[in-house]
Please model this.
Amino acid sequence: MLASISRRAILAIYAVIIIVPLTVVAFGSFKTTQELFAGPFSLPHSLAPDNFAEVVGGQNLGSSFMNSVIVTAVSVPLTLFLASLAGYAVARLKGFMSWAIFGFLVLGMAIPAQANMVPLYVLFGRLGLLDNLAGLILANVVSTLPIAVFILGGFMRTLPKELYEASSIDGSGPWKTYASIALPLSAPSIAAAAIFLFVIHWNELLYPLLFIQTPGNRTLPLALLSFQGEFQTNYPLLFAGVILASLPVVVAYVFLQRYFVAGITAGASKG
Amino acid sequence: MSLHPGTAAKRKAPDSQHADNPAKVRRRSPTRVNPALYLFPLPAVAVVAFFLVMPTLQAFQYAITDWNGFSAAFNYVGLDNFIRAFTKDSLFTNALTNNLKFVLLVVIAQTAFSLVLALLLTKNSRGSILLRALFFFPTILSSVSVAFIWKFIYDPNFGLANSVLGAVGIDGGSYLGNDAQALYWVAVTQVWFHAGQMMVVYIAGLQAIPRELYEAAEMDGANKWQQFKSITWPFVAPATSIVVAYTTVQSFKAFDLILGIAGNPPKAALDILSTRIYSTFANSEFGYAAAQSIIFMAMIALVTWLQRRLLRLTPKGD
Model:
């Protein structure tokens, strides 16, 4: 009895600690500063999207949003493509080579992005990849390829080898077997990896901070960060930015929750 | 839910050992490997080699120079950068101390709290599933968003925490403004951010424990605490090692959260290794920043190794 009451109490309190701040942010994004400070929990007086208009138009968050869309829309499929090719080879090759390729690619997970940022910055400078979206896309692909190979290669290895062999006995080359057998059968793990990459790439801050100079080339997290200094206590404006930056991920979470949990947890085991 | 890749990989280990046994492999599949297969991993291998492995090796090379990132001339300075970091640079040792403290706080708090949540939500009832989805939710937000939300909670004048405390007649604190406490408050934010993610790892581990064990223990008259100590805890050990290792790396790299909540550059009380490396880099001290990166990498490796040792020793002592 007592155990059941304290169980409910802990769960209820933590639910409140999560729900209340999120509600305050959602309501607050429609308020003026005075209104927010006077009553942070109250419903907004009006639903006029003044703050959103200000951040999208006045503060150029609209163009940052588009930049984030472009970077994520290219880097997620590109990472998946390269990782699935490698994962497929790892699943079909045998013995030492399979092990060596997988080990080499996955070892990169142990390298934190902050550890090689100086040489990467220099290298990207030489290749003309600073201050443009192509550089951000490449950096995203590089930094998440190891974990993507880990997830996809790990899954493709568990598919029965007979499937691949049957396909090649039927006269299909490796490419056809990849496209018509390996990819469709790996759909669940590709979906999980895609969600994981989507969250990471969409929220990526370090590389834009390192590489981007021109305000017009900023992605959302960097644009948000630059709000920090400008609008110290203009919380409604910050909140409108937070909502805008979170919206795509939140919408995806509502519909694809299962894959989120599987993907982000698969990513967690990388430690 | 197949949410437990760690153990899945371990369980598969014996099979792959079989495949590695050359005698067996040759006998079972006389068909040769199509050489075209070697082309498939090539793009990934090239990208990783050129943009990940090479820059990491170069960091070691930069670390023994005084290069400023721009001029063509630089000197090799041996281990001077490393000596400077540990003996002459109070900013760096401050960031190192903060970082270790932060990691320790978050690892203990997040591991314990996510296990508690998982224990309370192990059963697949409707309510549990709903609450899991809610508790997991903060994980998907960007660090900068989470930082802004908590900046408002902690705001000493208008913030949520002090409004709530004020309503019940308690004087609030200044939270991030108080240098002695600031790091602890950011640790609270970090736990709020990721406890739900680690809870999911634990739930997968808990659901794999056979129910009969508890039934047998109950028949033997074991109380709840005894059941936890001798069944639950040993069985979730693999999940614990995943949670601890991941939380360690995650809190070592809390770069985005710190910059979002404390500004760029953060004040000394909230400076951690990754933000310090970035500041050194932004200050055009490329050689010195590279040396700091290497210390950073070594610290993560050292702490992870120590934890593995500690966690492996625990079950033996039981």
